[in-house]
Specification:
about 775 residues; alpha/beta; 3 domains; nine-stranded mixed β-sheet
């Protein structure tokens, strides 16, 4: 070991007597300072402008704007310049013969050279640490483990680069050739992950060999054993190859024996790498304060209770616009969407089934006008270099599964060993793919009965199958809307009391703006449901008081006789901007953030609610109007052209009026829950898609909160995370200038000055 240290010391002395080592340090420090001052200065500017900061640590160091991410992109330029002379210099000067004649072993030579690079790499990390020191003393509750994990990832990367550079330097006496060779190997390792991804046998090998993105998990605060093993394998592989190269030079061996040794060490490295990539052999550590790289506790509970095997089959229709997400070349990246789940259930299997069938794809129809579906698929296969034999025909896919209810779109079927199935879809939004909430909801269906929601029909209620502005298809059963009930874990049906009794498995009944009263027979059926403790979501509206009051009066609720008004210069006076109450925000977490950030529930034409506690129900308002500027208008009915004025003589009183109330009572051993809304438009298709200048609306919070409460917290799943506490910097905007001066000027200058002094002193000897 002493010999290795002596060689390392000698190599470092030689390295730091050359201007290249110092020049790299200066340039690296300048780039670090420039990146840090820009990002950190941006945080200071945002804080000075009054914007709230969110996760300062991750904002400064991670993500596409973070300094760790930016510096990582440039590291491949530095290392070849440092490593190109490690062994090449020995060969070109002839000093290698002195080493061969000395009692120093090949391993000692290589490890000594490499150890010097490890020390130099620590200096590079030290330059990055200077930025961490400032943040440590100025950022509130800095996420230190996140930063240290990122530094570890960067250090492993440059050490891997150094090992590759050392090997390339051992192959030639020309330093330039060694540098170019190192760049070539790094380029291969960066891009090899895209090679052969459409070939199953090759896919796993090339994907594992790729060094690209290996350190990003570290930078984001996640340590995975697979990535650690990868870097160690790469380092040991190239060091081993370097030792074998010197051994071949020092002891003449046959060609077969030499290449056999090379092949053996490469095969061993691939074997170790393959074993480390097996899900059951992977270990993880999430260093982030909020555990942002790990499933939330809600999802972990689901995975804990999900026993047995699980298979995820992805059905990809080549004629569907979203076919690209599941192509053979995208299988490995697609797997990453479920990696957090595989962490907790390594036995998850993934399968891909390809087919062609009629799909809603106007763009494709226009481009391939006049061609049959089969001809379109054949043409796409030629363009995408896909074997057409891989695709099932419409007749063949129907024998496997009928996907016509899904519109033959991209869909995944989750299946347990016992035959239970659940669907995961792509959604018509910018994110497209399901998030943790949707995936976990689909999995939870296997272990918990999905609440069954019945929408009452037969009295001109809002229709869940129509897509008109006033209807409810979007939030109820649209398979393409991420937040619809069926995508959040509920089962949805329609219910006609005139034709059938209420099924025993119905958990929630929705009654949305009846225009006709219930018949005595229907009322009897509904009362039986209510008496057994069934939950309800009742939505009234203007001009429906006469029909709907008999329904809600039995709960102690009454729809007020007029129409709520909230006069303003910008909007029609009947547009009510309701406030989430503090009580509901405290008791139901789903409402807390919208309440905290001042989001409103907008109701375009609402009826106020009154409550009589004598009916045995406990009540609290969920949404209510402002105390000032709002009243129950009982005279004016033309809110577009008519003038609205407060008239106390007509019973109009300016006050806070509930527009949504929650009711509860004990029925046997269960708590019956009922939500009544004075407006049915607030959750309609049109209103959910509508935005108004100056109003921060969050109407969907009402849907989420209501159904979560009515389902006793089962669905929708709460996958929210705690807010990061590093949300403040104890510096003013004026600090930007001296931060920039220090890190872009002082630090590089001191490094340059140190290098010049050492160089001059050496020349003076």
């Amino acid at each position: 070991m002493k010999t290795i240290f002596r060689i390392a010391k000698t190599e470092l002395s030689t390295l730091f007597y050359s201007p290249v080592a110092w020049l790299i340090l200066v340039i690296f420090a300048f780039q670090t300072g420039m990146a840090f001052s820009d990002v950190f200065g941006g945080q200071l500017r945002s804080q000075a402008l009054g914007y709230g900061l969110w996760g300062v640590t991750s904002s400064v160091y991670t993500g596409w704007m973070g300094i760790f991410t930016g510096m990582l992109k440039n590291l491949y330029l530095y290392i070849p310049l440092l490593t190109m002379g490690l062994m090449s210099r020995e060969f070109s000067s002839g000093s290698i013969k002195l080493l061969y004649s000395s009692p120093v072993t090949n391993r000692q030579i290589i490890w000594g050279k490499y150890f010097s690079m490890m020390i130099y790499n620590l200096i590079l990390i030290g330059i990055l640490m200077l930025t961490v020191v400032l943040c440590l003393f100025t950022v509130k509750d800095m996420d230190v483990p996140l930063v240290l994990t990122g530094l570890l990832g960067i250090y492993l990367v440059i050490c891997a680069y150094a090992a590759i550079g050392l090997f390339m330097s051992s192959l030639t006496s020309y330093q330039v050739v060694a540098a170019v060779g190192t760049l070539a190997v790094l380029a291969v390792l960066n891009y090899i992950g895209d090679v052969g991804q459409d070939i199953a046998f090759v896919r796993d090998i090339t994907y594992w060999l790729s060094i690209s993105g290996r350190s990003y998990q570290f930078i984001e605060g996640m340590i995975c054993s697979e990535d650690v093993v990868y870097f160690l394998v790469v380092i040991l592989l190239f060091i081993g190859l370097s030792v074998l190269k010197l051994q071949a030079e020092r002891q003449k061996c046959s060609w077969a024996k030499t290449w056999g040794r090379y092949g053996g060490i490469v095969a061993l490295a691939l074997l170790v790498g393959y074993c480390s990539s097996r899900p059951k052999l992977m270990f993880y550590y999430d260093a982030t304060a909020t555990k942002s790289n790990t499933l939330t506790a809600t999802s972990q509970d689901v995975m804990k209770n999900l026993d047995g095997g699980l298979k995820i089959t992805t059905y990809v229709n080549l004629l569907d616009p979203d076919y690209g997400s599941g192509l053979p070349s995208q299988v490995k990246s697609d797997f990453g969407r479920f990696k957090q789940y595989v962490r907790f259930k390594p036995e998850i299997e993934m399968e891909y089934v390809y087919y062609y069938d009629k799909a809603d794809n106007e763009s494709l129809d226009d481009r391939f006008e006049g061609l049959s579906d089969k001809e379109k698929a054949e043409k796409l296969c030629k363009i995408l270099n896909i074997d057409f034999k891989l695709l099932l025909s419409p007749e063949e896919i129907k024998k496997v599964i009928d996907l016509s209810p899904e519109g033959n779109r991209f869909v995944r079927v989750l299946e347990r060993e016992n035959g239970q199935k659940s669907f995961l879809r792509l959604y018509d939004d910018n994110q497209k793919h399901p998030s943790e909430a949707e995936i976990s909801a689909a999995l939870k269906r296997f272990i918990v009965k999905s609440p069954r929601v019945a929408f009452l029909t037969g009295h001109e209620e809002r229709d869940i199958q129509k897509t008109g502005d006033r209807d409810y298809n979007r939030f109820a059963e649209s398979i393409y809307f991420r937040y619809s009930l069926i995508n959040q874990g509920f089962d949805v049906i329609t219910l006609s009391l005139a034709e059938e009794n209420i099924p025993e498995d119905v958990d929630i009944i929705v009654i949305a703006e009846m225009k006709q009263a219930l018949s005595p027979e229907e009322e009897q059926k509904l009362n039986q449901y209510i008496d057994r403790g069934g939950n309800l979501f009742i939505l009234g509206d203007t001009k429906r008081q006469e029909v709907m009051n008999p329904l809600v009066e039995k709960f102690g609720v009454r729809f007020m006789p007029g129409t709520l008004v909230q006069p303003s210069e910008e909007f029609i006076s009947s547009l009510i901007v309701g406030n989430i109450t503090e009580k509901v925000a405290r008791e139901q977490p789903v409402y807390y953030r919208p309440f905290l950030y001042g989001y409103k529930i907008v109701m375009p034409g609402a009826v106020g609610l009154e409550f009589d506690p004598s009916k045995g129900f406990a009540m609290y308002p969920v949404v209510q109007t402002n105390e000032k500027g709002c009243w129950d208008e009982r005279e004016t009915t033309d809110f577009l052209d008519g003038k609205v004025e407060l008239n106390p003589e007509a019973g109009e009183v300016e006050m806070a009026i509930p527009t949504v109330v929650a009711l509860s009572r004990k029925v046997g051993d269960k708590e019956q829950r009922i939500v009544v809304s004075g407006d049915a438009d607030c959750v309609s298709n049109g209103e959910l898609d509508k935005g108004r200048n100056g109003i921060r609306a969050s109407n969907f919070t009402l849907i989420t909160g209501t159904f979560k409460w009515l389902s006793y917290g089962e669905y929708p799943l709460d996958t929210s995370r705690p807010e990061p506490s590093d949300n403040k910097i104890y510096l003013g905007r004026s600090a930007r200038s001296w931060v920039k001066f220090t890190y872009m000027g002082v630090v590089p200058f001191l490094l340059a000055l140190t290098g010049i002094i050492i160089y001059v002193r050496r020349k003076g000897r």
